[in-house]
Amino acid sequence: MKAEKNLFDIVAGSSIGAINSTVLINHFLNHGKSWKGSPEVLENFWKDLTSYTLVDNKNPLFQLWWNSFWKYWHSINPEVFASPEAARRYWSWNQLANLPWGSTRNLSVTIPEFDFKYFDFNPAVSGWLGYDFYPLRKILKDSIYFPIKTSFENREPRLLMVSVDVQDCTSAVTFDSYPKGKDMSGNNIWYSEYSGSIEDDDESSGQKARIM
C-alpha cells in the first residue's frame, strides 16, 4: 500500500495555537504517521477542555429570554448595546474571572493576589486575579505523549512552538522537534533548553515519556 502523503512539512503555533499543533503532531506520530482522524481528535480535545457557564444554559426558555432581551436592546443601538453572542462571551468571562466559584475544567478557582505596594487598600483596584493552570496541564498530560521528536529523514513534520521569554519580554523562545545535531556515533540528538539533551529514543521498548 502506498504510504499516505505527508500533508504538512511544518506545523507551527504560538499560545493556544501551540497546543493545537502539539495535539495534531501527537496524533500523527502515534497513529501510524497518518493525519486521518486528526480533525476529530482536535475537536474532542477542545470538547474535553470546554467549560460551560451560567449563560450557556441550554434551557429553551432561558435561551428565548436571553436572545430576545439582547436582540431588543442591540436593535435600538448596536453601538451601545451588545449582541446576544457578545453578551454571552462577556458574562461568561465575568463569571470565570471574577467570581470565587468560577472553577472550570480548564482553570482552577480564581485566586486573588493583593498588591499593596502603593498603599492602595481597595481590593477592587489592587486585587490581581491569578489562575492555577493545573487542570489544563493535567489534560495535556493525559492527552500528549512527550517528548515529541521528529526528523526529516523519517519524513515527519517539523513542530515549531514560539513564545516570548518572560524574563526580558523581547527574546523569542522556540521549541523545535527536529534534531539539533548528531553525536559521535552519528545518532540524532534532540535538545531541550529546559532539560538538556534527549538522546535515548527508547523506541525499541515501545514506551514514550509523558509530559511534565
Explain the overall architecture.
- The structure is a single chain.
- The protein has helices spanning 16-29, 38-49, 60-76, 84-98, 123-126, 134-143; strands at residues 10-14, 111-114, 127-130, 158-164, 172-176, 181-182, 188-192, 196-198.
- The longest helix is centred in the N-terminal third of the chain and has 17 residues, at 60-76.
- The radius of gyration is 23 Å and the shape is extended.
- With 212 residues, the chain is α+β, with helices and mostly antiparallel strands.
- Helix 1 packs across helix 2.
Would you summarize the structure shown here?
With 212 residues, the chain is of the alpha+beta class.
Distance from first to last alpha carbon: 37 Å
Radius of gyration: 23 Å
**What would the average pLDDT be, to the nearest integer?**
77
Low-confidence spans: 193-212
Strand content: 15-25%
Domain unit count: 2
Main sheet specs: 3 strands, mixed
Percent helix among the residues? 25-40%
Structural class: alpha+beta
What is the element string, with H for helices and E for strands?
Answer: EHHHHEHEHEEEEE
The number of helical runs is 6
